Amino acid sequence: MKELIKRTYLQYQTFLTYAFWGIFATGINIVTYFLFANILHLSVITSNIGAWILTTIFGFITSRHRVFKSETTGFKNIWHEWIQFASFRGTSLLADTCTMWLTIEILGWHALIAKTLANLIAALINYSTSKRIVFKNQNRSGEDIRKRLINAENK
């Protein structure tokens, strides 16, 4: 059983690490949204964009260092990675904002339910684009995973 857990973890390590840090990012997103909306009394869209900016900065740092373990060096290369990351997060911002607008303004849902749904949709988009495009050179190949599994079995 212990070996099965270890092998499963190694096989899904990137996704599990992304999910772990994603929980924190979701918390930042929801808390900052509610601060902007309820304390600063900003509109749904403005609050959502403000929360997105803070969450995107946090997401880049954690995705780069903790999830995909980017080895990119040099300001120009890291800047390119950031621009790519933020650009794809812009796609999820569009989906997030449309979800918020539709569910709150049109359907009259409670903001917490709407924000939770919007975060789930955004997380799927973000993981896919980060793994397949932004940090693709950092992703482990199938051969690398097999080697780690064999090493884990031999320990």
TrEMBL record:
Domain of life: Bacteria
Coarse class of the protein's main subcellular location: membrane
One Pfam assignment: GtrA_DPMS_TM
Name of the protein described by the UniProt record: Putative flippase GtrA (Transmembrane translocase of bactoprenol-linked glucose)
Record's keyword terms, sorted: Membrane, Transmembrane, Transmembrane helix
One annotated Gene Ontology cellular component of this protein: plasma membrane
Domain spans labelled GtrA/DPMS transmembrane: 18-135
Stored InterPro entries: GtrA_CellWall_Glycosyl, GtrA_DPMS_TM
Membrane-traversing stretches: 12-36, 42-61, 108-127
Localisation per UniProt entry: Membrane
Family membership: Belongs to the GtrA family.
Any one Gene Ontology BP term: polysaccharide biosynthetic process
Membrane topology term: Multi-pass membrane protein
